[in-house]
Amino acid sequence: MQEKFKVAQPWLTLLARLTLGGVLIVAGALKVGNLQKSAMAVRAYEILPIWLANFFGYALPWVEIGIGALLIIGVAVKIMGSLGALIMFGFIIAIAQAWARGLSIDCGCFGGGGTIDPEDTKYLSTILRDIGFLALGVFLYFYPKGRFALDK
Amino acid sequence: MATSSSGDKGTRNLVIIMVAFIVVVGVIFSIISNRTSSNYSIPAAVSEADGYGIVLNPTATPKIDVYVDYQCPACRTFEILNGGYLNEVIAQNKAKVVFHPMTFIGPESILAANAAACSADENKFIDMNLALFQNQPSGENTGRWTNDSLIAIGNAVGITSNTFNECVNQGKYVKWTRNITVESGKANVNSTPTVLVNGKPLDRDTEYGDPVKFKAALAAAGVQ
């Protein structure tokens, strides 16, 4: 069993890198073309002061693209995996508080965002999905060495 | 062996620096290009103190702020249900009404907001505002709103001047829409339509979709 994991682990790391990295790049790229909407999506969570929410709205898509690119190339995987997990943790907290407070918002994870009809919210599925991504980041923290990475 | 491993390290650091550089430049560029500027061309009816919105009846009270995106279907519904009464209020000078055409749905929202601002210079904003919603394409950024089609909408409501055509074609007020974006962000407007009466938002569940309640909300604020 342990032997099998030893063989599979570098491939699992590769898979985790490509999945988490790919998701982050796509999420960032979809938002970077409409930063107004991105800032609006962050404001709609009603956690941060408006100026900080706007800053996050403009900055986050670029940061996502950066982390995603480094994960796919396979550079600083341990650190980028942790950052990816940290970002996902932040998203989960943000979505959970919006849900608990009864806000009706779109998560704005892949573009979109803002206030929507209460029946259109999908908090649970979004949180479950982000827990999955968080798990990938945690895996990469513990097993950063994988196939086809620039890191040796 | 030693040289090849230090070469790998060099590549690795170079990649990290390059990606970090792109991220930092991207963030700085995004922040700089999303700030207000009074150097942009600004329609005559616009007041900086009112969030760069298009102001009708500047001295009347109460103040009603209307935030829309011309591509937003809910804004179209709002205009159809309540636009008639709101225009009556404006025509009878019963309130100061400030329109903030937002552009977060994309490029064709910017073209439409520019055309609306151009129409304000011709004192035809109310008609143009209604006509834009009446001619709202189904679907976002479908290619159906171009400067030509927007000029045609303007012509249909009786704007025939050459200045209007030039204003639309040159995108005279395109940059001004950024000011609207920034200021509506500061006002914490996170969806459209948003209507503030004396700074207080209407109740999203009831007062937007029901003309009787909309009228009542305005009356409560002092619109007779």
Task: Give me some keywords for this one.
heterodimer; A: 152 residues; mainly alpha; B: 224 residues; alpha+beta; Glutaredoxin; 2 domains; 6-stranded mixed β-sheet; 8 helices
Question: What does this protein look like?
Answer:
The complex is a heterodimer of chains A (152) and B (224). In chain A, strands 1-2 form a two-stranded antiparallel ribbon. Chain A has helices at residues 2-32, 35-44, 50-73, 77-100, 123-142; strands at 105-106, 114-115. Chain A has one domain (9-142). By secondary structure, chain A is mainly α. In chain A, helix 1 crosses helix 3 (50-73), helix 3 (50-73) runs antiparallel to helix 4 and helix 4 (77-100) packs antiparallel against helix 5 (123-142). Chain B is α+β, with helices and mostly antiparallel strands and 224 residues long. Chain B has two domains: 1-33; 46-220, Glutaredoxin. Helices cover 51% and strands 12% of the residues of chain B. Chain B is built from eight helices and six strands; from the N terminus they run H-E-E-E-H-E-H-H-H-H-H-E-E-H. In chain B, strands 1-2-4-3-5-6 form a six-stranded mixed sheet. In chain B, strand 3 (63-69), helix 2 and strand 4 (96-102) form a beta-alpha-beta unit. In chain B, helix 3 packs parallel to helix 5 (147-156) and helix 5 (147-156) packs antiparallel against helix 6 (162-169). The longest helix of chain B has 31 residues, at 2-32. The radius of gyration of chain B is 22 Å and the shape is globular.
Strand order, main sheet of chain B: write it out.
1-2-4-3-5-6
Note poorly predicted spans of chain A: none
Beta-strand segment tally of chain A: 2
What summary fits the major beta sheet of chain B?
Answer: 6 strands, mixed
Q: At the fourth CATH level, what is the homologous superfamily of the largest domain in chain B? A: Glutaredoxin
Strand-residue proportion of chain B: 5-15%
Domain module count of chain A? 1
Q: How confident is the prediction overall: mean pLDDT of chain B? A: 92
- Output the number of helix runs of chain B: 8
Structural class of chain B: alpha+beta
What quaternary form is this? Answer: heterodimer
CA-based shape of chain A: elongated
The level 1 CATH classification of the largest domain in chain B is: Alpha Beta
